[in-house]
Write a structure and sequence with these properties.
Number of helices: 6
Helix content: over 70%
Shape: elongated
Number of strands: 0
Order of helices and strands: HHHHHH
Strand content: under 5%
Largest sheet: none
Radius of gyration: 21 Å
Distance between the termini: 47 Å
Length: about 170
């Protein structure tokens, strides 16, 4: 079985969203539990989010070419998603770099410094926000039911077969 560009994009695009949200959640737990292991795990997960944002973004162009000619696809929404994806990728890769630096910084210190923890927490929440917006704008391309009006403005073609009867 060979995947199309759109399938590869759908496979990769969920990772940076889920990983950045997970990292943010782990940072919240780390603040309450005050556990260095949770902090380091959150930082590692954010590094993975940054890495995974690259193939998610890189496969987007091929996915665009696959779906842009399909009926019902809004070209304007594709361009909104593309712009948000570029910003989200940059933010998430940057957050991953901040997390990597934070991991190295904490590794070199016996006492857990708060500055890298705070910076990584801010980076994780920022990445989570941007990647959630990217995921939402991408979903709007083929899922009108998630739009503000619940897809109500999207016409649905129904065939009640009245014209099929020759009697």
């Amino acid at each position: 079985m060979q995947f199309s560009s759109a399938q590869w994009h759908l496979l990769f695009n969920h990772f940076p969203i889920i990983l950045s949200i997970t990292a943010a959640g782990l940072m919240v737990l780390a603040f309450f539990i005050r556990n260095k292991g949770f902090v380091q795990t959150a930082m590692f997960v954010l590094v993975l989010a940054g890495i995974s944002a690259i193939p998610a973004f890189q496969t987007g162009e091929g996915a665009e070419e696959t779906v842009e000619e399909l009926a019902g696809v809004d070209h304007q929404q594709i361009h909104v998603h593309e712009h948000q994806a570029q910003t989200g990728m940059r933010v998430t890769v940057g957050a991953g770099i901040i997390a990597l630096i934070g991991m190295l910084w904490m590794r070199s210190k016996k006492v857990q410094p708060m500055l890298p923890v705070v910076l990584v927490a801010i980076a994780a929440f920022t990445s989570s926000y941007f990647m959630t917006m990217v995921g939402h704008s991408g979903g709007l391309i083929r899922h009108p039911e998630i739009s503000a009006d619940g897809g109500g403005s999207t016409p649905v073609m129904q065939n009640d077969h009245r014209d099929d009867d020759d009697d």
